[in-house]
Specification:
This protein is 75% helix and 1% strand. By secondary structure, the protein is mainly α. Strands 1-2 form a two-stranded antiparallel sheet. A hairpin with a 2-residue loop joins β1 and β2.
Length: 401
């Protein structure tokens, strides 16, 4: 009886992944401190406390959502997947009509609903819904066609593309290229682990790299730009690539933001200037450019700690995936990992001038409710894996006893 109680207590304790919770809490605290610094030195912000409290409110909402999602087991998530996907599609269509006119005027994207002073981006909610749907599609296909033939692999690719194309069209209509890249990253990650033969994947990824290289070549040639303009490229997209390739050539206009970000990060040197110190003005540093605040205040050491926290978080998520040994969960976790990893890679990369500018926030750190809720929903999906797997294992042991 004592041994049974001990095992039951261990099973209950191990249902919660405290490593993931620790990583999220540390990143969240760094985010709140960074938002406070950014708001304190932003002349347009009247109430600094309100900015921080609002972010805390979004964290509470996101945490509540993660706890709710954690209660869903794999069978329930399986049933919810198509409902969540089509509801997300409905929101992406609705925002094209009911978009915030003020946000469109400032960003050029029809991506936000507005309720009073609060704005909400439905494409962020679409991310976990898209991950669930892809996981269901791949699992269902591999169950029906366990032998990965060439014809079956092409069929699976066709199914995945069929669920991705509507999103790409809607995001194109919203003029939200940055978010579109996140969905491509999620799709690419799920395809890599879906079991599709490398005889198909290698040429496909080769074509993608050749296409990207061709576009880049056309951008840097005057005659090539006219070709890209004919197929829908905008002037701001050319400007972002120019800024990426030559950030020092136009530091007072298009390259101002990234140039100031690099100056702020560089000025922090090894240990940083100290908390709540800001001598370099960086536009939108409370959201897209939040990494510049960390670099200036906490230096190379602070930036390294942030990167290590992300590595710890991703490691914990990968470990949970291997522990559960559930195919459907594996595709879900792959999608969540790719979503977070791409956000981190792109945001930090653009902040230090290694990647082109996009409106990609830094997960759990940047100011903003929509992205934070989407990321916390992804964490809820990951937490569900261990929560229900451990419960199932203990019940199974009970039956054998």
């Amino acid at each position: 009886m004592a041994e049974e109680s001990r095992l039951r207590g261990q099973a209950e304790d191990s249902r919660i992944d405290w490593g993931i919770i620790f990583s999220i809490m540390m990143l969240g605290l760094i985010g709140l401190a960074s938002i406070y610094v950014a708001a304190s030195h932003d002349s347009s912000v009247v109430n600094v406390t309100k900015q921080v409290v609002t972010q805390i409110m979004w964290f509470v909402i996101g945490t509540t959502l993660a706890i709710i999602i954690m209660q869903f087991d794999s069978e329930q998530l399986w049933r919810v997947a198509p409902l969540a996907y089509w509801f997300g599609i409905f929101l992406l269509v609705a925002v094209l009509v009911l978009y915030s006119r003020s946000m469109y005027a400032s960003t050029g994207a029809k991506s936000w609903f507005a309720v009073g002073s609060l704005t909400f981006q439905p494409s962020e909610i679409m991310k976990p819904a898209f991950i669930l749907m892809l996981g269901r599609v791949v699992t269902n296909h591999n169950t029906e066609y366990p032998a990965h033939t060439t014809a079956g692999d092409w069929q699976l690719i066709g199914k995945l593309v069929a669920y991705t194309v509507p999103l790409i069209i809607l995001l194109k209509l919203q003029n939200d290229f940055g978010t579109m890249l996140v969905f491509f990253a999620i799709l690419g990650g799920v395809i890599l682990v879906s079991g599709i033969s490398w005889r198909l994947l290698a040429p496909a990824f080769g074509i993608v790299f050749v296409f990207a290289g061709t576009v880049l070549f056309l951008v840097i040639t005057n005659s090539g730009r006219s070709i890209l303009e004919a197929v829908g490229f905008k002037a701001y997209q050319f400007a972002r690539i120019d800024t990426w390739l030559n950030p020092s050539t136009d530091t007072s206009n298009n390259a101002y933001q990234v140039w100031q970000s690099m100056k702020a990060i560089g000025s922090g040197q090894i240990t940083g200037r100290g908390f709540n110190v800001s001598h370099v003005t960086v536009p939108v540093r409370e959201s897209d450019m939040i990494f510049s605040v960390i670099g200036e205040n906490f230096g190379f050491i602070g930036c390294t700690i942030v990167v290590l926290l992300y590595f710890l978080l991703i490691y914990q998520m990968i470990r949970v995936t291997f522990d559960t040994k559930n195919e459907f969960y594996a595709y879900i976790s792959t999608g969540v990992i790719m979503m977070i990893l791409f956000h981190v890679f792109e945001n930090i990369g653009m902040s230090i001038g290694l990647l082109p500018m996009t409106g990609i926030p830094l997960p759990f750190i940047s100011q903003g409710g929509s992205a934070l809720i989407a990321n916390m929903a992804g964490i809820g999906l990951i937490m569900s894996m261990r929560f229900h797997y451990k419960s199932y294992m203990f019940s199974r042991n009970d039956r054998f006893e």
